[in-house]
Design brief:
mainly beta, five-stranded mixed β-sheet, about 400 residues
Length: about 400
């Protein structure tokens, strides 16, 4: 069942970029994007819109936050709902006092961003494992927060503190390794780790792109763009940096690897990408899958895939698909996906088999007819250890 782009409230990709989800005005829809685009799950069961959505590709567990525009909604903008699609009911609800700006999930933790804090919630113990406080002015953009990929043994979290003019790097398991560093520009609008968590891509003042080396603790590369940058992504091999701008441009840049380069804050103006493309303007989520194919999902009903040769810096193939009934694709951008067609996704076997997250949550709620309502009564209260604020490099 295809959906109307006007009903799309949010987009989300799984960590392995094999599936993406769409939050709508009355539910959510999940798509398999490994071969073509196939709708595998459609839930129109809510009286509220889905403003934020997060899920794992191999689980029946979905996490969402309701839309604040809906009246008399059971699921408001202050509540995180953990939904079990096998039981077709919530198994846990987390009520906060302030509006939720962003959620993220991996197999171990749920990350919830509010106006004043970032909660790292342990599923198994059903409690806040860490609570990172930040300055509320840091969240003007609502998306300036990132975590490392799940294969990183010591996961990191990054967010800005505008009062101190630093970017804070926090570790989940070893808080003693926390540190911060000053950044170029005034207002941070986007953060993104590379796959290994050794670099951090930063967009500041909408057009300034910086790559920070977290090992050598310096600025690796900087440049500006003519249009406001909405998001950026690193390739799996760290050879490429991709930016997507508000004008619909998708820009592929080569990252310079020179061990003898001194890390100085020298900003290059408007460098040209080795490959540039334009897609319909909208809100985007993007990322590289395991085959090093770059995927862009647009809120306007499109998904575009780029196969890039990171050695020769050439675009080998581009495919565009529509997941919306009202979206249209230019003929020159469309490649027939019949050769890539896959069988219908088996929801029961793929979304609910052998998943630690589902087991852990079911252990919390022994009674299948009841779900847990978990209320966090105050912001700024938790078991976070105090960190050394002097551990800052300039």
């Amino acid at each position: 069942m295809e959906l109307d782009p006007s009903s799309v409230l949010c987009c989300a990709l799984t960590e392995d970029k094999s599936h993406f989800g769409i939050g709508t005005k009355n539910g959510f829809q999940i798509f398999d994007c490994r071969k073509g685009v196939n709708s595998v799950l459609n839930r129109n069961i809510f009286e509220t819109g889905i403003k934020h959505l997060a899920f794992l590709a191999t689980s029946s567990i979905f996490v969402f936050v309701g839309d604040n525009k809906q009246q008399n909604s059971e699921y408001g903008p202050n509540k995180v709902v953990i939904w079990d699609d096998i039981q077709m009911s919530p198994i846990m609800e987390i009520q906060l006092l302030s509006k939720i700006y962003q959620i993220r999930i991996n197999k171990n933790f749920l990350f919830v961003v509010t106006k004043k804090a970032i909660y790292v919630i342990d599923f198994e113990q059903a409690k806040t494992k860490h609570l990172f406080l930040h300055n509320s002015k840091s969240l003007k953009n609502k998306t300036i927060f990132d975590i490392c990929y799940p294969e990183i043994e010591n996961q990191k979290i990054a967010y800005p503190d505008l009062n101190k003019h630093i970017i804070c790097i926090k570790t989940i398991e070893f808080p003693e390794y926390n540190f911060g560093f000053s950044y170029i520009g005034k207002l941070i609008t986007f953060l993104k780790f590379n796959k290994m968590g050794t670099w951090l891509g930063v967009i500041s003042d909408n057009i300034l792109v910086c790559i920070y080396d977290l090992i050598k603790r310096g600025v690796k590369q900087t440049f500006t763009q003519t249009s406001s940058v909405q998001c950026l992504e690193f390739s799996n091999d760290n050879n490429l940096l991709i930016t997507i701008c508000n004008d619909g441009s998708v820009n592929f840049f080569k990252i310079h690897h020179n061990p003898n380069t001194n890390y100085l804050r020298k900003i290059k103006q408007n460098i040209d990408p080795f490959f540039k493309d334009y897609i319909m303007k909208g809100k985007y989520v993007c990322g590289f899958n395991k085959e090093n194919i770059f995927i862009v999902v647009s809120s306007e009903g499109f998904i575009t895939k780029y196969k890039i040769n990171t050695i020769s810096c050439e675009c080998e193939k581009k495919k565009s698909y529509s997941y919306s009934k009202n979206a249209s694709i230019k003929k020159e951008d469309y490649t027939d996906s019949s050769s890539d067609s896959s069988t219908q996704f088996d929801y029961e076997s793929n979304f609910s088999s052998n998943n630690d997250l589902e087991i852990e949550l079911n252990n919390i709620n022994k009674d299948e007819n009841k779900h847990e309502s978990w209320v966090i009564n105050g912001e700024g209260k938790g078991d976070e250890k105090k960190n050394d604020e002097n551990n800052v490099y300039n």
